[in-house]
Amino acid sequence: WIVKREKEFPTGIQLMNFGAAIPHTDAECVREEFVAVITMQEPVTFYSMEDNTQQVKAQIIFVLGLNQPHAQLEMLQSLMGLLQNETVLSELLLATTENELVTTIKKNQL
């Protein structure tokens, strides 16, 4: 469902120094909730949420699987705020272990 939704409603976001994406599906498609943070050594191509003809080379991807529409909206708003904080995003990208990633997330109350 995520791939299908991404084709219809792209989630790529071009930031100052790198690209990001927030792929997600509709709440009714999620059995068990999750949020995954994926950092890429080599960027993955997504299409821009602002202009679906423009490619975004995403280095950080937040995959959302939330089954409550209100919670999904809150998480998207929170992530949009995070995406404006290049310092925290850089810390996430520099994390080399799962533990470092989790520590950065907790330290910044994400």
Automatic annotation (TrEMBL):
<dbReference type="Pfam" id="PF00359">
    <property type="entry name" value="PTS_EIIA_2"/>
</dbReference>
<dbReference type="InterPro" id="IPR016152">
    <property type="entry name" value="PTrfase/Anion_transptr"/>
</dbReference>
<dbReference type="InterPro" id="IPR051541">
    <property type="entry name" value="PTS_SugarTrans_NitroReg"/>
</dbReference>
<dbReference type="InterPro" id="IPR002178">
    <property type="entry name" value="PTS_EIIA_type-2_dom"/>
</dbReference>
<feature type="domain" description="PTS EIIA type-2">
    <location>
        <begin position="1"/>
        <end position="108"/>
    </location>
</feature>
<protein>
    <submittedName>
        <fullName>Presumptive arabitol PTS enzyme IIA</fullName>
    </submittedName>
</protein>
